[in-house]
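W.,

You were right to be curious about this one. When I first looked at the sequence I had no strong expectations either way, so I just let the prediction run and decided to look at it fresh. Below is the sequence, 308 residues in total, followed by the output.
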Amino acid sequence: MEIRVFAPASVANIGVGYDILGFALESPGDEVVARFSDGKGMSIGQITGTNRLPFSPEKNTATFSAQALLNFLGKSEIGIELDIHKKMPFGSGLGSSAASAVAGVFAVNTLLGNPLTKKELLHFAVLGEQLADGSYHADNVAPSLLGGIILIRENATLDITSLPIPDDLVAAVIYPEVEVLTRDSRNILKPDISLQKCIAQTGNLASFIAGLYRSDYELIGRSLTDHVIEPQRAVLIPHFYEIKNMALKMDALGCSISGAGPSIFALFKGETAAQKGGMAMKNIFEVHGIPATLYTGKINQGGAVVLS
């Protein structure tokens, strides 16, 4: 018996919600195949799509999160083997390690007959993400697992809320082949912000959420200005402001850094606008000699799914 699952990439922060907002993408994502084995605990059969991931179960986010689930269920002696098929770039700012952790824990839970609900799996998937970047946060993991746009009131307790998604809200995400590791992107951040920036940022965060509830695209657009993280991280991404200005010129509601970068996301009203705006953004990277990939689509509302 084998179970094949898919876990999508995700955009964390959404500009105004550092570590507390994220949404899932339709593509790319990771696939994991789980099967019972003759050994004990988790093992890895094969990894495709990259040569940069460890085969050691203690060091791989997919098997680490799945083993934590087995331990919790009192089934640590059961032998399960995973095949991991990376279908998204490493160090992209699209939640690559989170997608692997989600796919691993979701596949094993499915193989065991779904003893836990999706939401109950969240903690174990976050443990896998923590292994990768040293921080216990769910802004990539929660949307990858559950789908949609997720608000995290508190990471420590995983107090999360699914936010409404306006019908015509479409994302364009550009991944340039420039590597920015999450650890490095976190280290550049200053620990304190001014009261003025705090007021501006919280106002934008609240208004962004209100815009989602009201399907008010103009309010969403007015709110997607990051006063805190983007100004510090933009220096890590070549030509960031040139691309952001192009996105806004192409009628993007807003544009900012996806997670730790280097990927850049923009939100649009309508798929045609997202395709045109995304291509214009992508072309700037390519004019400067940087290969880039464009992903467009509506918000993925299903999260992790069983493929077969």
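Here's what jumped out at me. The chain has a mean pLDDT of 95. And, maybe more interesting for your project: Residues 235 and 241 are 9 Å apart (CA to CA).

Coffee later to discuss?

I.
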